[in-house]
Design brief:
alpha+beta, 15% strand, 2 domains, 44% helix
């Protein structure tokens, strides 16, 4: 199977892709960058782009991921066995548990981590008893200039999720004791953070 490569002759391929697809803003920006490199016959730029994949879509997705990584100070370009950009490992990671830590369905966890450039983000797993959800630390997460700001933002998001399910009619999936215990722990954490900010 022939491997796709961007060249100075790829103008029509890029134009067709733009015409035939509904592009997100970052995709349109990357394709404009590629089209400009083709127009200038900038083979160095095109070869640099080619390292990110074996199709136009693959290149766009990996290049976007790489640029998101750079926002956290991660510059390494490395790929997994399937050709996708490897996720960087966040530093100073913390897992903070709210609710009953001894039962997986009765607690929520807030994850904190920072990039190489001191930019922090958060993620969470949340449980209402049986219903819940979550996501992991990622370069696509919200960005904060300090650990405390990331922590407070994560607390507020988790509190909002829990508060929204207070007194829910479905008591099987949204167990009120679990929600109340989680909200209690969030309140304690917010109060402690506020006290520390006074000193």
């Amino acid at each position: 199977m022939e491997t796709f490569k961007l060249t100075v002759g790829s103008k029509d391929i890029v134009a067709d892709y733009i015409r035939d697809n509904h592009l997100a803003k970052h995709e349109a920006e990357i394709l404009k960058e590629v089209a400009d490199a083709i127009e200038r016959s900038d083979m160095d730029k095109l070869e640099w782009c080619n390292q990110f994949g074996n199709s136009l879509r693959h290149i766009m997705m990996n290049l976007h991921a790489y640029r998101k990584q750079q926002e956290f100070g991660f510059d390494e370009i490395a790929f997994d066995q399937y050709g996708w950009l490897k996720r960087p490992e966040f530093l100073d990671k913390e897992d903070i548990v709210f609710g009953n830590p001894h039962h997986y369905a009765e607690h929520s966890t807030l994850y904190l981590g920072r990039g190489l450039n001191q930019i922090w983000t958060y993620a969470m797993d949340y449980s209402f008893g049986l219903a819940g959800g979550g996501y992991h630390l990622s370069v696509y997460g919200k960005q904060f200039n300090s650990r405390d700001r990331a922590f407070l933002a994560g607390l507020n998001d988790l509190k909002s999720l829990m508060t929204d399910k207070l007194n829910h009619n479905d008591r099987s999936n949204y167990k009120q004791p679990v929600i109340n215990a989680t909200l209690y722990d969030i309140g304690k954490a917010q109060a402690a953070t506020f006290q520390l900010s006074l000193f």
